[in-house]
Amino acid sequence: MQGFLVISVFPKKTFPKETVFYKWFVAGTKDVPFIVRDNEFFIDRDPKSFAIILNYFRLKSSGQLWEACLPKDPDRLAMLTQEAEYFDLVQLRTQAINLLQSSCEDRQTNYIHEVLSKSTSCPQGFNSPFD
After folding, report:
1. Name one GO biological process term (predicted).
2. Which terminus in the chain has less CB density within 10 A, N or C?
3. When comparing pLDDT for 114 and 91, which is higher?
């Protein structure tokens, strides 16, 4: 089991209202599915993707170019689409999928197409340029 301890403190305005982060930490309308101890949260998710998600919140809330935090590696982008789906981060997920699609056009990555075709977070119509 791999987890990530979040020590960062974000202002409430950081989280968009449609995200589960807002529902967990601001509105309190959804139970927090993390281990909570001494006001710290243990999140059992992919730590590399979660670091990108935290950077997304930081950059977006400060008005900076949040797209800069996206990984260039197709494998990392594929994982990020899954994590963004889990956390209801539609804008991040969409941008990651767009980058993934453009990177797949440039190289032979049939295994990524196979994985994404089975994914519920990948939009219908993700076509392989090799079909």
Report:
1. protein homooligomerization
2. N
3. 91
